[in-house]
Amino acid sequence: MPKLQTVGLGKRFGDLDVLRGIDVTVPDGAFVAIVGPSGCGKTSFLRIVAGLEPQSAGQVLIDGVKVVGPGADRGFVFQNDNLLPWRTVLANAMIGPEIGGRADAAARARTAALLRLVGLAGFENYYPRQLSGGMRQRVNLARALAIDPRILLMDEPFSALDAQTREIMQTELLRIWEQGRKTALFVTHQIDEAVYLADQVLVFARRPGRIREIVPINLPRPRPLSIKRTPQFVALVDHIWGAIEEDVRASVFNAET
Ligand SMILES: Nc1ncnc2c1ncn2[C@@H]1O[C@H](COP(=O)(O)OP(=O)(O)O)[C@@H](O)[C@H]1O
Ligand SMILES: [Mg+2]
Questions:
Q1: What's the CA-to-centroid distance between 17 and ligand 2, angstroms?
Q2: CB of 41 closer than 6 angstroms to any ligand 1 atom
Q3: Ramachandran angles phi, psi of 226, nearest 5°
Q4: In 3-state terms, what secondary structure has residue 36?
Q5: What is the H or E stretch that residue 232 is in?
Q6: CB neighbours of residue 257 within 10 Å
Q7: Are 3 and 30 in contact (CB under 8 A)?
Q8: Reduced to 3 states, what is the DSSP secondary structure of residue 226?
Q9: How confident is the model at residue 80 (pLDDT cuts 50, 70, 90)?
Q10: Ligand 1 mutation pick, 44, 247, 256, max ligand atoms within 8 A of CB
């Protein structure tokens, strides 16, 4: 049985047809990236899977069970870090277990171990303002993992980072993902980021948002950054760019529509 399945998923905001007929099947442990032009419904799709937004049509199934709201089986990493400034790194990462009513000593120890895993050993008692952007996104990742979700949902988590930090975070994310192999959905604007991370890239089209193509990424793992310079990698990026170029041009030149 697939870990995650969407069947005929649709979304309308009033008159706006945002998503239509999204059928996705994600096997357990797969890393799926989602790319597509601005406004094609990527965030809406992720929020529906997270149970933060109701769909207008179709269903989301996790382990065959219909999603009806948010749950501890899904961890969400948002585009902009939303750490609480008055809480330390550890206290921020503990928010999930606290909400779940499981903020005991064992949960604190697990969360501290996750902070070490994301490279924040020694920063447990720092406050967000004392951290770089990359470090804050590491806290967000640890926080999403702290509830031990079955599925990790990430919405452009690295988009606010500079290019070098972003590449480091990509390798770090893969290193962390290799440890637990949680099913992951990762939205990005950057096609090379999608190809580098994923087993499968969903290419979304716009107006209404739907799946234009599902591109399997059969690159070996683990993946060093140098894989980005191989002919197979470049060919995959070119192929995906070819699939969305027209849509991206339309979204740039008709930003208001
Ligand atoms: N809460 C909302 N109410 C009305 N329209 C929305 C809402 N959220 C998103 N939209 C619209 O839905 C479309 C898809 O948005 P979004 O899912 O954020 O796209 P993406 O993440 O791919 O850029 C956009 O046209 C956006 O303006
Ligand atoms: Mg978005």
A1: 16
A2: yes
A3: -65, -15
A4: coil
A5: helix 231-253
A6: 9
A7: yes
A8: helix
A9: confident
A10: 44
C-alpha pair distances (Å), 184 with each of 11, 30, 103, 130, 254: 22, 6, 25, 29, 32
Mean pLDDT of 84-102: 92
CA distance 85 to 129: 7
Q: DSSP code of 209?
A: B
Q: How many helices (H) and strands (E) does the chain have?
A: 8, 10
Residue 251 in this model has a pLDDT that exceeds 90: no
219 Cβ contact list (under 8 Å, min separation 6)? 195, 227, 232, 233, 236
**pLDDT tens-digit readout, 132-172:** 999 999 999 999 989 889 999 999 999 888 899 899 999 98
C-alpha span between 107 and 254 (Å, rounded): 49
d(CA 103, CA 173): 25
CA separation for the pair 155, 189 (Å, rounded): 10
Indicate the pLDDT class of residue 213, thresholds 50, 70 and 90: very high
Distance CA 203, CA 154 (A): 16
Q: Which residues pair with 205 in a beta bridge?
A: 210
Q: Once rounded to an integer, what is the mean pLDDT over residues 93-110?
A: 90
* Distance between Cα 43 and ligand 2 center (Å): 4
Residue in 9, 11, 16 to alter for ligand 1 test, most ligand atoms within 8 A of Cβ: 16
Cis peptide before 149 (omega within 30 of 0): no
Scanning 104-226, the segments in alpha helix (DSSP H) are 105-117, 133-146, 163-180, 191-197
| Predicted local confidence at residue 200, as pLDDT | 97
Please name the residue that has the structure tokens 């585009």.
79
Q: Which of 84, 147, 151, 141 is CA-nearest to residue 116?
A: 141
